[in-house]
């Protein structure tokens, strides 16, 4: 059978065995509604509150400042729609996840003003651009902590200070940062921060929004008084328990230096793959080079190919990776993140994201290294546009 290696952990991560075991009782014998006052309800309520403490520990905040949601998209939307009101001005960036970009697009279509600050060639926002974008009616700044395609980490602490000095709310989407780098909401200076369980080995369908004490957040859902009236709806107890356990394991991993080991594996991958003399793989380069990045993410362009073709070819050989491209109206569009960084469309469409998870080993990395150069070479042989002259700096 073909060996299968999964290097698409920024899309989703496998649930760790410890997380699954923590969740298991809440699908069966511990089934109570956490809002009920009898034994069954109080048993699950206690589990929810333990998970809240664990997520708060991961973010360096109070447990009372954690709101559980149905995932990262809902948490991003709650942060944006819960703060901004008609007539307000919102500042975001050109490289945000669509959970933020499309929420801001909706605002712009409904009486709000939205400014999108650019990024440089490394994929980094300049805090000075954020400061220049401020207006008297600016209500919210929403800039991600780490980019989902490149892994580039944004200067959020500087942006947080700008927001605080201007008395403007600051939200950061930390979905791709949580569990990968240490997060302290007080050092960042944010008022709201989003995490999603399935991005750091928790279950799908559960997330959380940090809401700083004193932040006036309007709910999006109306019903019961769940989550201190900030998110109505019966709690997803198994998911919340899993999210809490994943947060505990992430903190323990930082203490062991798991992030340092993962960065070493990622750096080994990049050195070997992009060491042209070693692999004969020219016409390739790192997107986000010389920028701070989360330790698990690599985004590389391979000139002369289509990224989707490489994804399919590698999958047939047992390696799962992804592109940053999105399918829109039946047409493959280049990544908005990479084009915002200044990549020409053909290079953006020739880019592949490789993202490690806790389950990956050095052997997995070496397996990928053994496949990629020969697969790229084969696709280039079939490409009508690839020639030696096609390689550009």
Topology at a glance:
Blueprint: E1 5-6, H1 17-23, H2 39-59, E2 66-69, H3 72-81, E3 89-93, H4 98-108, E4 113-117, H5 127-133, E5 138-142, H6 156-166, E6 169-173, H7 185-188, E7 192-196, E8 207-211, H8 226-229, H9 237-256, H10 258-274, H11 276-279, E9 284-286, E10 297-302, H12 307-316, E11 319-320, E12 326-328, E13 331-333, H13 336-340, H14 345-348, E14 351-355, H15 362-382
Parallel strand pairs: 1-11, 3-4, 3-5, 5-6, 6-7
Antiparallel strand pairs: 2-8, 7-8, 9-10, 10-14, 12-13
Helix pairs in contact: 1-9, 2-9, 3-4, 10-15, 12-15
Profile the largest sheet.
7 strands, mixed
Count the E strands: 14
Instruction: Give the neighbour order of strands across the main sheet.
Output: 2-8-7-6-5-3-4
Compute the CA-based radius of gyration. 22 Å
Oligomeric form: single chain
Overall pLDDT metric: 94
Q: Assign the structural class, choosing from mainly alpha, mainly beta, alpha/beta, alpha+beta, or little secondary structure.
A: alpha/beta
The H-level CATH homologous superfamily of the largest domain, spelled out, is: Type I PLP-dependent aspartate aminotransferase-like (Major domain)
Report the uncertain regions. 326-331
Helix content: 25-40%
Secondary-structure element order, N to C? EHHEHEHEHEHEHEEHHHHEEHEEEHHEH
**What is the end-to-end distance?**
40 Å
């Amino acid at each position: 059978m073909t060996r299968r290696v999964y290097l698409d952990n920024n899309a989703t991560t496998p649930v760790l065995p410890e997380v699954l075991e923590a969740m298991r009782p809440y699908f069966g014998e511990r089934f109570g509604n956490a809002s009920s006052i009898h034994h069954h309800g109080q048993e699950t309520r206690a589990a929810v509150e333990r998970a809240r403490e664990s997520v708060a520990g991961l973010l360096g905040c109070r447990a009372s400042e954690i709101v559980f949601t149905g995932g990262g998209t809902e948490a991003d939307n709650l942060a944006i729609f819960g703060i901004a009101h008609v007539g307000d001005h919102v500042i975001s960036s050109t490289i945000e996840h669509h959970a933020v970009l499309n929420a801001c697009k909706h605002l712009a279509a409904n009486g709000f003003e939205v400014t999108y600050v650019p990024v440089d060639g490394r994929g980094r926002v300049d805090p000075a651009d954020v400061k220049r974008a401020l207006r008297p009616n600016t209500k919210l700044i929403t800039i991600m902590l780490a980019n989902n395609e490149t892994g580039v980490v944004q200067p959020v602490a500087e942006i947080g200070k700008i927001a605080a000095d201007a008395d403007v709310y600051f939200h950061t989407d930390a979905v791709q940062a949580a569990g990968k780098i240490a997060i302290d909401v007080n050092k960042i200076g944010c008022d709201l921060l989003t995490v999603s369980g399935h991005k750091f080995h928790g279950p799908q369908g559960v997330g959380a929004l940090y809401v700083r004490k004193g932040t006036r957040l309007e709910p999006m859902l109306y019903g019961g008084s769940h989550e201190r009236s900030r998110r109505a709806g019966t709690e997803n107890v198994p998911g919340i328990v899993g999210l809490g356990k994943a947060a505990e394991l992430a903190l323990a991993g930082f203490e062991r230096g798991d992030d340092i080991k993962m960065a070493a594996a990622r750096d080994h991958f990049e050195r070997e793959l992009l060491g042209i003399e070693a692999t004969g793989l020219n016409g390739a380069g790192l997107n986000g080079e010389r920028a701070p990045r989360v330790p698990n993410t690599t985004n590389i362009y391979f000139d002369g190919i289509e990224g989707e073709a490489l994804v399919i070819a590698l999958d047939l050989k047992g390696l799962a990776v992804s592109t940053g491209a999105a399918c829109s109206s039946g047409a493959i569009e280049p990544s908005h993140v990479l084009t915002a960084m200044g990549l020409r469309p053909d290079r953006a469409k020739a880019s592949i994201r490789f993202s490690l998870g806790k389950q990956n080993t050095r052997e997995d990395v070496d397996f990928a290294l053994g496949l990629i150069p020969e697969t790229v070479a084969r696709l280039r042989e079939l490409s009508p546009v690839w020639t030696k002259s096609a390689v550009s700096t």
